[in-house]
Design goal:
Number of strands: 22
Shape: globular
Distance between the termini: 73 Å
Structural class: alpha/beta
Length: 486
């Protein structure tokens, strides 16, 4: 078993206690261990971040771009080892892990390019001989809390823009999947990131939560995870001037209209629902089908699901990986049990994989007979489960999509351009897809949900600058001294 150190103040450090990291394909033997930092260690990380910010905010944007570009190069050079660790700690297939690794490098490269640009606007000024502009500045030390489902790409999505704009970070990776975050930190460290600009806190959340969230030097928190935890963080920040960017829950729907290319729609829905075993925030978990094509589409869907191969992420033949932990497996199975008790019909799947008792496997599952009152219709399951429901027409389909406290992603499958644009206008979601998957939003595309799926601050693209920078307005009088008219 490997023993790893974590990055704090530009040094690789360890502690007296450790956290074991397990492979969800077989949880019997730990594959690595990382330091279980204490509250005092967290306070030191903020000390380092405060000093690192003082240096980094004054560092040339061109030097920031150089560091991010070099880190991207290192990630690409190390992609094989990084992807292997992502698969080992998370369970996703090696192909998915490799894609995640390369996309993390894309984030660094994209924001390296953005760092070289000016963030501001030239404004007209009513006063003669005045030139006024806005400029964007970093906000300070930002706490980054990332989840276990995308242990490399989510830190990249969060850290790349805040570092490009001159902020410093204290980064808390998920306890279950810290290896990917440490790889990301190593690439930045080896690329020349100054000491203290990035500090990685590996530890048990219950033991360090107060130290993480209550430090007075925090200027912003960016969090991806459950609504329960996100709302707890928001309440904790209620009387503090701290920005909060939250990417929270989702119950994403795909609509199949009667004029859709049904085989293509079935393939896209299965890809969106069962990639990473359904453990994506944008995964499709509800399918809404117009009644005239419901039976045909259900048959196509079940056939596509039947072609999936369940197995460990290291097997090239695997197309459906294990869930990321025993806890997540048991949660998904409990949700399936409730659905059946409430009257849902299992068209395929619905059970744990009994042939792999030491792994976190759940069969890919399609449920029919769904009504809006069932918990499976509105609860986020976060696993390889699809709830299938028939509706009468387009209006009923949109109503069903919007019948959710969430509003992250939705898709519609249709050959009619009018229906496509009507759906884009009427779906209460931050991300809308037409004839493609609810997943797969690239680095330059603004990302974030409506309602309980997120907050006012988007991720990705230039939109993220609203979170990671503050705006300063500067007016310059360039006329002769003492003359108001220049």
């Amino acid at each position: 078993m490997r023993t790893l150190e974590t990055l704090s103040g530009g040094e690789w450090v360890r502690s007296g206690e450790w956290i074991d990291v397990h492979d969800p394909a077989d949880v019997r033997t730990p594959l690595a261990r990382v330091p279980a930092l204490s509250a005092k260690d967290v306070a030191r990380a903020y000390d380092h971040a405060e000093r690192g910010f003082a240096v980094w905010k004054r560092t040339s944007p061109f030097e920031r771009a150089r560091v991010l570009t070099e880190a991207a190069r290192l990630i690409r050079a190390r992609a094989g080892d990084i992807a292997a660790d992502v698969t080992a700690e998370n369970g996703k297939t090696l192909a998915e892990a490799t894609g995640e690794t390369l996309k993390a490098a894309d984030f660094l490269e994209y924001y390296a390019g953005l760092a070289r640009q000016g963030y501001g606007t030239l404004l007209h000024d009513v006063r003669p001989a005045h030139r006024t502009h806005t400029q964007r500045e970093p906000i300070g030390v930002i706490l980054v809390i990332s989840p276990w489902n995308d242990p490399l790409i989510t830190p990249a999505r969060k850290l790349a823009p805040l570092l490009a704009t001159g902020n410093a970070a204290v980064f808390k990776p998920a306890t279950e999947t810290p290896l990917a975050g440490l790889h990301f930190a190593a690439a930045l460290h080896d690329a020349g990131l100054p000491a203290g600009v990035l500090n990685v806190v590996t530890g048990r959340t219950a033991e360090i939560e107060e130290a993480l969230l209550d430090d007075p030097r925090i200027a912003g928190i960016t969090f991806t995870g459950s609504n329960a935890v996100g709302n707890r963080i928001r309440r904790r920040l209620a009387d503090r001037n701290v920005r909060f960017q939250g990417e929270l829950g989702g119950k994403n729907a795909s609509v199949v209209l009667r004029d859709a290319d049904l085989p293509a729609a079935a393939k896209a829905v299965v890809a969106a629902a069962f990639g990473q075993a359904g453990q994506r925030c944008t995964a499709t978990s509800r399918v809404i089908v117009e009644q005239p094509v419901y039976d045909e589409f259900a048959g196509l869907l079940v056939a596509e699901v039947g072609a999936l191969t369940v197995g460990p992420g290291t097997d090239p033949a695997t197309t459906l990986c294990p869930l990321s932990s025993p806890k997540q497996r048991d949660s998904v199975l409990a949700g399936l049990g409730r659905a059946v008790e409430q009257g849902a019909t299992v068209l395929t799947g619905g059970r744990a994989d009994s042939g792999r008792p030491h792994g976190c496997y759940v069969e890919p599952t399609v449920l029919a007979g769904i009504t809006p009152e069932m918990a499976i219709w509105w609860e986020e399951v976060f696993g390889p489960v699809l709830a299938l429901r028939a509706v009468d027409d387009f209006a009923a389909a949109v109503e069903a999509v919007n019948d959710s406290e969430f509003g992250l992603a939705a898709a519609v499958f249709t050959r009619d351009l009018g229906s496509a644009y009507r759906f884009a206008d009427e779906a209460e979601c931050g991300q809308v897809a037409v004839n493609t998957t609810t997943t797969g939003w690239d680095v330059h595309l603004p990302f974030g949900g409506f309602h309980d799926s997120g907050t006012g601050y988007k991720e990705q693209g230039e939109e993220v600058l609203r979170f990671s920078t503050r705006v300063k307005t500067v007016a310059v009088h360039f006329g002769a001294p003492g003359r108001a008219d220049g």
